[in-house]
Structure formats: structure tokens, C-alpha cells
Fold:
Amino acid sequence: MKTTSETPAHAADSRYAMLRLALTLLIMTVGSSGMYVVSVMLPAVQAEFGIDRADASLPYTWLMLGFGFGGVLMGKLADRFGVMWPLLTGSVFLAAGYVATGLSGGIVSFTIAQALLVGLLGSSAAFAPLVADTSLWFVKRRGIAVAICASGNYVAGAIWPPIAQHFIETVGWRQTYIGMGIFCGIAMALLALFFRARPPAAAATPAAGNASNTLPPRDMARPFGLGMGTAQGLLCVAAVACCVAMAMPQVHIVAYCGDLGYGPAQGAMMLSLMLGFGVVSRLVSGAICDRIGGLRTLLLGGVLQCIALLLFLPFDGLVSLYVISALFGLFQGGLVPAYAIIVREHFPPKEAGARVGTVLMFSLFGMALGGWMSGKVFDLTGSYHAAFVNGIGWNLLNLCIASFLLFRLYRLRLRPPGGPVSA
Structure:
């Protein structure tokens, strides 16, 4: 497959690359809307279909599963044909998915539309392929560029919940989905046309100045002194664990506010606030990663996320929930991008794409599992208190894995040259 020749206009770190990054942020904001709107729809969908909270949470679960698998599918399509074609494909299926969801007659058809059309073939085109594409257009400023790109996912979370809630209250959830299908499909397709150029070959060179050089020299054949499969597996489990915990407030804050008597509109505003601060978190975490490395950034974010989850237990006042929602967004936004940086730091560069995609897929599985699990715990206990405790438990598992891997790195640094390292 031929690639576009690298002219000054289309070189890495060029003005074109910056313009492309701005358009990437915009198209990701449109394409990622489905991940957050379904949470706002949850109370209305549950009431209309007459189902329990766990069943009402299933569309989100299957949406995230589809999103995870679709990221790998769309990534391979982008590798072969360029990112424009998966974006155009995603725009068609995202529009069809929203319209089909608005016309669904029950929870089964609603879930199928979310999983296959919105998740697998729609929104997935606007995340993993764009993150990979952005990393190829920047060398000197790759870290902050990827952080800005990934922030588009949270910008969508900050913008779309209050918009969706407004239209749910004025025209109903079905009409809201159909209207979003028309708008998002057209907007995403038009923006995709600007992504015709292929990435320059120079962008494949590694970024300089990574501050993770403070860590010991790495044997790429044995990440953390472990076998490839073991190291990859631990990162995947850590990704599932941190995102199960992350999903609890993100998926259920709207329903939680309804149960407390504050109304779903307040919950939608809290979700918007949470994800708005998540944008700040992703940008700040990108800068932190440049200084202390991905693994220590992951550990720091995990500790702070756990603190925020603990605050949900004793405080349920309206003002308190707004403050805690903001803190939760500020603490957890950098967790998922940290996994991509860890893979780039400790695994062979030629395998980075596949390994980053795999870890991110497991993080999405964690979001899917956490959304359903929290609803199931609520159904069994009649309260979200136990669901928050469940999230804290998963968060602790993530911290244990991150601490173990960091311990392995320091053990490698203290090892005598040529000394053995046990697996």
C-alpha cells in the first residue's frame, strides 16, 4: 500500500498535523457521543420497558464490548486503507444505530442496535484508529498530541449528557436518538473527508526526551523482567480492574441522583462535570507521564481514583456529589492513556499497535463489566452503597498489579549487571 509522500505541508509536527489534530478532537467529540448518551437514557428506558436496573444497564455493557472489538476491526481497516475510510464507515453505522435505537420496541432490539451498530461499527471508528493515527503525525510533541486526541472522548462526555437530557425532557428519548443519528452521521461523514492524507513515514521514529529514562534500562524481550505473555496479561487484568471501578460513577450517577430525589437532570450535569474535569486530567497526566513514566502515572491515578470512590460512601448531599464528581473526573482521566504509554515504554515498538489495542480493548471490557455489575449489585441490595464498595475492591486489584510491576522495575535496577531475574 502506497503512502502519501512527505512534503513540508504534510510532515510530522507541521501546521497540517496541528490542523488535523484539531479536526481529530472534533470528530472524536461527535463520534464518541454514544458512550455517554446511553447512561442518560437509562432511567427513561427502564421506565418505558418496565425492567430492572441491571437489565437497563445491559445496553451500555454490550455497547462497550462492541466498542472494544470494533476498535481492533477499525484499526486494521485504517492500517490498510487510511483512517478516512473507517471514519466514513463509522458515520453511516452510527447514524443507523441511533435511528434503530430510537425505533426499538424492547430492550433486546435496543441492546442489539447499541452493541452492533453504535458500538462495533459506529463509535469504535472514532477512538482507537484516531489515537493511532495521531501518534504517527507527531514526533517532538507526540505525548501532548495523543493526550489532546484522547481528550476528545471526554469532551464528548462533557457536552452530550446535558444536551441529551434537555431533549429527553422536551421531545422524549426516542426522538432524541433519531435526531442525534441525523446530526452525528452527517457531521462525522463531512469531517472524515479531511482525513484523506496518509501519515508521514518520519512520524514512525520514537519521540525524544521521554522522562521515563529515569527508570532502569529495559529489556524489550522481557518487560518488567517477565515473559511477554505474562506482562501483557497483567496489564490487561489491571485495565479491566481500574475500569470496572471507573464505570460505577460514570454509568450510574444519573440513576443514583434520581434515587436520591435530586432528579436525572442533576445527574446529567454531574456526569458532564465529571467528564469535563476528565479532559483536564488527561492533559495533565500526559505531562506527568513525560516526567515520571507511564507506570508510576498509572499508580498515582489509581490511588487518587480510589480516594474519590471512597468519598462517595459518606457523602450524598447535592453539593457534595457535585464536588466529588469533579474530583473523580480530575483523578481518573489519565488512567486509560497511561496504558498506551506503558506499552510504548516496555514492549517492542514493532508490536506497540497490536498490544496497545489489546490493552485498550480490555479497558473497555472493564467499563462494560462495571456498568452491568453495578446495576446488578444495586438490584440485589437496593442501594448503590455496595456498588461503590465493589468498585473500590476492583480499584485495589489494579493498585496491586501496578505496584507489583513497579517493584519489578526497581528490582531490575538494583540487579547486578548480567544477574538473573526470576519470572
About this structure: The two ends are 40 Å apart (CA to CA). Residues 140 and 349 are 17 Å apart (CA to CA). DSSP finds 15 helices and no strands in the chain. Residues 1-5, 201-216 have pLDDT under 50 and may be disordered.
